[in-house]
Amino acid sequence: MENTTALLSTAYFAPIQYYCKMIQHSNVMIEQWENYSKQSYRNRCNIYGANGSLAISVPVVKATNKKVLTKDVQISYDTNWQKLHWKGIESAYKSSPFYEYYIDDLERFFSQKWNFLLDFNLEIQAEICEILEIENKNSLTDDFIPLNAPDIADFRNVIHPKPSKGINDTEFTPQAYTQVFGNKHGFIPNLSILDLIFNLGPDSSYYLESCLK
Q1: Which of 189, 202, 209, 212 could pair with 174 as two cysteines, CB 3.0-4.6 Å apart?
Q2: What is the pTM for the complete model shown?
């Protein structure tokens, strides 16, 4: 394990790469003072549906100002997105080996309501860490951390759903595993952590370690 601090953005059912950073580094900080960035993992995740990779997003309240801090972003409930996400996840993973084993632990995230996106994501992350049986060693930043800060492994601009916006991560090498629709569309790497736990179950933490080798 590296003795550096990993700096991550908040994320909704974050991708596998994100959790690899959590086990790779001795300390993890979540940036809360950044200007909120749209079309990122902060409010979306990619799952494996019948037609391939499927992005599902948490709608947020539009800010009156052009810029809003991540810590102040509120979730919008104008549409019943929780029901849509629940049905989408069920459709994607109901036939996976460990769906029935874990789904009850996740149900509250699609029935209860949170006001702020950051709080919601942190609760999800705590639950996922418990499922993975890894330490939830997160802390929130006290102030905005600039680029190239010393002793900080900054992944805020590395882990991004759009490859053109992300930065190549030479320390992350996703390994193939069996996915529900893999015979149809092939292996899709670095999906939401949901894809991993539903397909690999208790072996998920070992898989994370294998991606760092």
Answers
A1: 189
A2: 0.95
